[in-house]
Known about the structure:
By secondary structure, the protein is of the alpha/beta class. The protein contains 13 helices and 12 strands. The protein has a domain at 3-196 and 226-257 and 298-317: NAD(P)-binding Rossmann-like Domain (Rossmann fold, 3-Layer(aba) Sandwich), CATH 3.40.50.720. It has a 7-stranded parallel β-sheet, with helices on both faces. The protein has a 3-stranded mixed β-sheet with strand order 7-9-11. Helix 6 links the parallel strand 5 and strand 6. The longest helix has 23 residues, at 95-117. The structure holds nicotinamide-adenine-dinucleotide (NAD) and 2'deoxy-thymidine-5'-diphospho-alpha-D-glucose (DAU). Nicotinamide-adenine-dinucleotide (NAD) binds at residues 7-8, 10-14, 33-36, 38-39, 59-61, 81-85, 100, 104, 132, 134, 164, 187, 189-190, 196.
Amino acid sequence: MKTFLVTGGAGFIGANFILRARRNKWANIINLDKLTYAGNLQTLAELQFDRDYKFFQADIGNLEFVKFLLTEYQPDAVVNFAAESHVDRSIVKPDDFIQTNVVGTFQLLEATKSYWQNLPPQQQDHFRFLHVSTDEVYGTLSFTAPAFTEQTPYTPNSPYAASKASSDHLVRAYHHTYKLPTLTTNCSNNYGSYQFPEKLIPLTILNALEGKQLPVYGSGQNVRDWLYVEDHCDAINLVLAEGQVGETYNIGGESEKNNLEVVEKICAILDRLAPQPDFKHSSLITFVKDRPGHDLRYAIDCNKIKRELGWQPQESFDSGLMKTINWYMSNTAWVDRVKSGAYQDWITQNYASRITS
Length: 357
Ligand code: NAD
Ligand code: DAU
């Protein structure tokens, strides 16, 4: 059995990846996570007696500690999910994005390089550093432009996107210069179980269930390409196993929707699953002040991973959304814990100045 050092494994995608890796016996897991506001060990509760899963609370920027973990556990791969990930927070306060996404990734690469250079040649050949990135590095598209390919030039527009673009460039440079066996994946918007409700889909589901306003930025016409998180995790595992070293792979859900469509779909489903006698959920939709620099459209061309590795998304947006809504309705203990404390401060900070009516 292989061993993966997963960073950011207490966050949304990292935790889904770890749960899937342990359930499907992909690998033993060492999880290194700083436990920022977005990290949640409750998501991983089912692994508490799993002897092949270990958790360490630490920063990816802690060079000496990461070196220690690598030497101690001799992983076959590092899978880097750790990041500050919310665009709106990056606009309010970019500092942590630069620190973790740029400086942290650099330190993680340094620690990994030092470990990898000391491996015997055969282990060096098999080792992989997989960096999880985003389609936002490619900038924004018009409604009619072709989707982003791996050749699309980087034109990041938010502090978050710029910090992720920087980290992608560092990963690329460590392969080119030191021959570190890297892989980079650039994916579209993920959704599914365990997503922190600052992001559009879980925020809308939970607000609607509580009869609260559903904030839609600007006109709601901005388009995202929705990828079910488990499809994303399967793609990452496949890229780890079969991806060409030094390459990047785009991963998308082939489900482009504008934000208003997404919110309206959630409302229609909740009208059936949780009907309200006095109102339709869509009456809660509230158009609010737009995100500064709001990218109009993201769309991923994922033909490379389909063609070369045989991956394709298994979930349609309708089936994935239904699973996601059912999950949030059935996991109220997880939701209540997440929404207590600092979460409320963010909601006040982000929406108080936006909601005008
Ligand atoms: P998330 O915000 O839910 O989780 C991030 C995790 O990283 C948290 O557990 C947090 O505690 C941890 N972390 C933050 N700073 C750290 C540090 N300095 N050291 C160690 N751990 C740290 O994010 P997510 O949605 O799970 O995204 C995971 C990765 O995927 C990120 O790199 C993100 O940029 C990328 N991505 C996400 C999406 C999406 O739609 N969610 C889409 C494309 C790419
Ligand atoms: O494209 C990949 C990216 O997707 C990832 O790299 C990011 O980590 C992830 O957070 C996500 O970024 P977005 O900004 O696209 O996701 P978010 O859920 O914040 O917003 C989705 C769309 O919905 C976006 O156009 C803004 C809009 N929105 C968002 C919120 C939170 C609203 O209209 N209202 C809201 O309250």
